[in-house]
Amino acid sequence: MNWERAIKDFEYYLKLEKGLSANTVQAYINDVTHLKNFSLFKYPTYSPIEIKLQQLEEFLSYLNDLEIHARSQARIISGIKAFYFFLELGDYIKENPSMLLSTPRLDKKLPIVLTVEEIDELIGAIDLSKPDGHRNRAMLEVLYSCGLRVSELVELKLFQLHFDEGFIRVIGKGNKERLVPISAKAIRELNNYFEQTRNTQKIQKGFENYVFLNKNGRNITRVMVFTIIKQLAKKIGLNKPISPHTFRHSFATHLVEGGADLRAVQQMLGHESIITTEIYTHLDKTYLKQIITDFHPRS
């Protein structure tokens, strides 16, 4: 089995059996391609099934020599481990050489979070007299109200909106679905956007179901959402490095600060593991102190 065949089969596995999104699949393929390029340079006669732990450790040393950040190294190692798990699963190899591969230790980095006042100021800075004003306001309200990933926002369809029940149906990573409550304010802003802009614009064929459209009648892109938020931050003089994901972090943090159950927050964010959600408890020491005060028998 050569590298091209192995990578192509791995790609089919990720798409068809794992059901991962196109972006996630491409990330895994990029990780394995790094290893392939290293192997073809250092061990040109080795196929992927001939790679052992020694070669993988040399590959990690190579990444270190290139001064690739530890977080990026961890991402690549994750992809390599998934690749060799696939080869082991398909009986292409008897022993998985990546099992003992160590991941660089990562410092826990707390996310940037906006205050409620900063969010209100950002959204309030949107000029509703412009053609994209109502769309941008609705977009940011949905980002904050529902804690969506930017990919989930730009892919949101009309049939996923259930205003009467107060929920939206979100299709997240790996095509996994979840129901997320939507605030009355976000619903109002969406209805304003529909009435003032979307219902009157020309929509290109194939894009009729997308909620957020650009001026050409196609679904808005992730880059455009990022640009809109950066421009608003500059407009109000906000000196924080923010992105669409900052609204998701703020959504989760404000829920935890308000006393929301961590399992409920996990479900709304679509996290597979509660460990991922627990980072938001580190953002508010007052919240943790209150938990001990309320529930510990010695308090």
What would you say this structure looks like, in words?
- There is one protein chain.
- With 299 residues, the protein is mainly alpha-helical.
- The protein has 2 domains: 3-89, Tyrosine recombinase, N-terminal domain (DNA polymerase, domain 1, Orthogonal Bundle); 116-293, hpI Integrase, Chain A (Orthogonal Bundle), CATH 1.10.443.10.
- The protein contains 13 helices and 3 strands.
- It has helices spanning 3-17, 22-42, 53-65, 70-89, 116-124, 133-146, 150-154, 184-196, 222-236, 244-257, 262-269, 274-277, 285-295, and strands at 161-162, 167-171, 177-181.
- A 3-stranded antiparallel beta sheet has the order 1-2-3.
- Helix 6 packs antiparallel against helix 8 and helix 6 (133-146) crosses helix 10.
CATH superfamily of the largest domain: Intergrase catalytic core
Radius of gyration: 23 Å
Task: Encode the helix/strand succession as letters.
Answer: HHHHHHHEEEHHHHHH
* CATH architect. name of the largest domain: Orthogonal Bundle
Termini gap: 63 Å
The outline comes out as globular
CATH class of the largest domain: Mainly Alpha
Mean pLDDT: 87
Major sheet details = 3 strands, antiparallel
Strand percentage, roughly?
A: under 5%
User: What topology, given as strand order, has the largest sheet?
Assistant: 1-2-3
Query: How many helices does DSSP assign?
Result: 13
For the record, the count of structural domains works out to 2
Structural class: mainly alpha
- Estimated helix fraction: 40-55%
DSSP summary, beta strand count: 3
| CATH fold field value of the largest domain | hpI Integrase, Chain A
Would you identify the regions where 5 or more consecutive residues have pLDDT less than 50? none
